[in-house]
## 1
Amino acid sequence: MDMDWKNLDFAMRPTAGSIRLDYDGQTWSEPAVMREATISLPIGAQALHYGQACFEGLKAFSLQDGGVGLFRPEMNARRMRQSAERICMVAPPEALFVEACLRAVELNLEYVPPYGTGASLYLRPLLIGTEPLLPVMPSSTFTLLVMVSPVGPYYQDGFAPVDALILEGYDRAAPRGTGQSKVAGNYAASLKSTLEAKAQGFPINLYLDAREGKYVDEFGTSNFIAITRDQRYLTPDSPSILPSITNDSLRQLAKDMGLEVVQAPIPVSALEQFVEVGACGTAAIITPIASVTYRDKKIRFGNGEAGPVLTRLYQELQSIQYGEVDDRHGWITRIKPTSQRPHHQ
Ligand code: PLP
Ligand code: COI
């Protein structure tokens, strides 16, 4: 495969294909290979009109020993079931979801960026309601697609700090809304504020809680993490943020490093106390945040470079993901040929 692996951006690229599963109202079909990059849908499909759509994001990595590993797919399987439940969809059982992901990687092994390039294969499982319905009601049929794309960093310069903006005119998720779920509508709702922030020169938006506008929630595509002067790892406890698998992993690694981990509401006024701030997620990995601008005030963290604690966490996480150190928490699922895997059901 002739690709400029070291200079990939975060984009959708043509691959060998995707994996498709259909739910007919009673059972899920076996994962099937889909070579074409288009699907045919009834024009009345529920997903298209009323937004019954949710998705996941996870990565496969070329390991140092020559294998290929998928990072914590069972966590994405569980989260897709939670997202689906919130908007009355039927998601595949966890084992079937993981199987579909493994099949998608297996189909696209030549698109998994080689070890040492710093890139990875991004998997995007997408669940949509396919039934044509006019009333606002749940679909009874669903399709799961697992598409993939080789990717580099989400933000252009990789592990280089970016400036964030809090735009007070927009909320990401309503109290008791769908902020905890990875549903398509959350992202549509964030487009306008994201464009507005970009136009003002900020690549990333930080959202506050929608009820009071007092607490830090998360970034549009990633969780908020911060390091205090006394070496604590802080991350918001909020009912409206996505439970990030990267954040969960980093909390474990931070504990392993001897940091105290605190999940608590973070008042926006506390931003000034932080010495390092990061945005964490599958796509973002850890993106260091150089500053947050709020009401014409620019709050800076550290000296504008990635700080030492987040740098170490980033290196620890990546060294597990690339199989350079012992997978001590059992986070890597190795890709084995289908013949060596137990058949589900
Ligand atoms: N928050 C939002 C809104 C996201 O879209 C994502 C990306 O998936 C995350 C957080 C990070 O979650 P994860 O680490 O599971 O990718
Ligand atoms: C991810 O990090 O996997 C995401 O889904 C973020 C964004 C690309 C929507």
## 2
Amino acid sequence: MRKISPLPGPVAECCAALRRAGFSAYPVGGGVRDLLLGRIPQDWDVATSALPDQVLALFPGAAPTGLPHGTVTLPADSGPIEVTTFRREMGYSDGRRPDGVSFGVSLEEDLARRDFTVNAMALAPDGSVIDPFGGLGDLEAGVLRCVGDPVQRFSEDRLRLFRALRFAAQLGFALDASVAEALARAPSTAPLAAERVGAEVEKTLCSPRPAWVGEMLRLGLLIPWLGDARADTAPLAALPAQPLPRWAGLAALVDNGALPEKLRRPGAVSRAVAAGLDLLHAGLPEDERQWRHALARHGPDCCRSAASMAMALGDEEPGHVLESTLAAHPCLTAKNLALSGGDLAALGLSGPDIGKAQARLLEYVLDRPEDNHQEVLRALLDRLFPQDGD
Ligand code: ATP
Ligand code: MG
């Protein structure tokens, strides 16, 4: 059997401590898959015969992150380790989570509840791979196949529909024909929590193959949140693989600035995408001077978002002009004026006049960034606010 190494120290130590205490423990799931693929896992999963209370008693730093499902999380340098008691899932009546779980089952049963064969492998203490569903073969062939009947597995938990396309995007795997067929007959995704869908869409967007999001649209998986939107998502791959530009690009392609907010993405991204689409519709700045004013008014995230939108729609120019504008580190706020609020007070201004003067000076400097010097601004100030007796 194929052997792999090395396991990150904290993961090996976690399993060893559980075994010393008389339990069985195995790294499982995405960590094993990524290790076999030579990818660096972001987080690790350990499956164990120990009950959650026993895991908590063994690791003082552990947090009870999902006790009803048997999950306890250990913080570690190699990424958080989720330690989950071997479990079987009982009935799925709501299409998004099991009605209950029962502990006290074998490792093989625990692996059987997992979504895809490549996610259903464990590492034995001797380093060999425990692979009851042919995950290794699928990993080598680059094929995503469900554990069990895909139609049933997708209807149990609709998030698996998104996960299938997300893994295809991240790993560059092909969908097994049975998976593609089950996706084409996908049950409604309406029972799912927007936030979990948003997280899967974001992982897909930020992968090397973001165009797979187009497949989510084509299959109607996003209808509950976006209506029946469709788009050619190929242009997304040209944008930086980060949440803001990729969400912005998608929002432009479907002409819906509320997209990240609907899918419960963090406020900063949601606001920047909504404001970015407004800026795009209002007409993008055409030169560096106009971009400086837009940056001062709307902030860099909104401007970057709008430039990413233009690029997704086939116009690269705004992005280049915005980047060259930013590269010059222009003064965009009153805080960065060569004359501070304190300087203005020392020059005899007080109260609301200070704010007014800063606003005027900033407008001036946005037009002429090379003039952000004390002497130039003082001369300008003398003209704007002539002192008595001048
Ligand atoms: P990544 O962490 O890279 O996003 P992953 O495969 O590790 O991908 P996690 O969400 O961390 O995904 O889940 C860990 C493991 O738990 C999976 O590899 C899989 O075995 C199992 N799993 C997670 N979500 C589901 C699900 N919805 N249905 C069945 N099994 C699941
Ligand atoms: Mg994981």
